[in-house]
Amino acid sequence: MKPSRFVRPIGIALILFWSLAPVYWAINTSLQSDATAQARPAHYFPPDPTLVNFRTLLGIGKVIAGYESVPDTIRRGLINIVVESGVATIVTVFLALLAAYAFARMTFRFHKVIFYAVLATMALPAYSTLIPLYRIMITLHLVNTYTGIVLVYVSGFLPIAMWVLYSYLSGIPRALEEAGAVDGASRMQVLWRIVVPVARPGIIATATITFLFGWSQFLFPLVLSSDSSTQPLTVVIASLQARHSAPFTLMNSAGVVAIVIPALITVLLNKYVVNGMLAGSVK
Q1: With contact defined as beta carbons under 8 Å apart, do 273 and 257 qualify?
Q2: Which end of the chain is more exposed for a tag (fewer CB within 10 A), N or C?
């Protein structure tokens, strides 16, 4: 056998190990008690697997003395990240659908200029707008509010969401809309009753991508929210770790929760994402 035949499998194995080893260690630690996790030598497999850390996060387990507020803070962060990502996804997909349909089916003055100007914003480094956005939020008194974080998310996610939906809507035959117009339907009726049902895979794909983008945000909510009332789970975990104010096992359990939810969404909706993206790319 040629040595080159082993290069690709070894390379893939190394990449998988590099990517999945931290995830495995977080899961391994989350299934141990605090005393077991701190034992030396370290346990590469949980000697006595337990769900006590996850029960503590759910508020149905005993909390270690001195850390009574930690589970409440983590649960609040989980609620915040779901609310902020969910609302941002709904608003982004709704606006992106209207914009994409207008660009795909309507002709107006400066049509192409506006379209490419919107897409050009994706080339800008996202964090270059962080300080200006922060100053705007301060002026509008939207720091430490759901509204401020959601508005920032929507402004960042809208161009790519519009681009994905534009590609998908451009591939839908115009004959379907023309048939609806012949039957007396208005343009908005054609959009909601004909285009939206046909474009459902593309809409689900866009919503999934947008939600995952929102879930993975860290720096923007870190700057725009200075207390746990609006901080998402990603920021809460980092802040607790920085202050060493939570047991290591409990922190890993929270990290597993932060990983599992988007992973499940990706697995369950993977078909819609792939089909929507492929269908939208074929005109």
Answers
A1: no
A2: N
CA–chain centroid gap for 176, Å, is: 33
Give, in degrees to the nearest 5, the angle at Cα 276 between 124 and 217.
40
**Rounded Cα gap, residues 175 and 199, in angstroms:** 15
What angle do helix axes 146-170 and 111-120 make, rounded to 10 degrees?
Answer: 130
* pLDDT score for 67: 62
Residue pair 71/59 in contact (Cβ under 8 Å)? The answer is yes
Q: What is the pLDDT of residues 113-168, one digit of tens each?
A: 988 888 888 888 888 888 889 999 999 999 999 999 999 999 999 999 999 899 88
Q: Report the half-sphere exposure of 145 (CA within 13 A, side-chain side).
A: 11
Q: In 10 A of CB 10, how many CB atoms? A: 9
- Cis omega (within 30 of 0) for bond into 132: no
Phi, psi of 107 (to 5 degrees): -120, 125
In angstroms, the CA 283 to CA 279 distance is 8
* pTM of the full structure: 0.86
d(CA 158, CA 178) in angstroms, rounded, equals 28
Q: How far apart, in whole angstroms, are the C-alpha atoms of residue 158 and residue 99? A: 9
Question: Could you tell me if 70 and 245 are in contact, meaning their C-beta atoms sit under 8 angstroms apart?
Answer: yes
Maximum CA extent, the chain: 76
Is the CA virtual torsion 36, 37, 42, 44 positive or negative?
positive
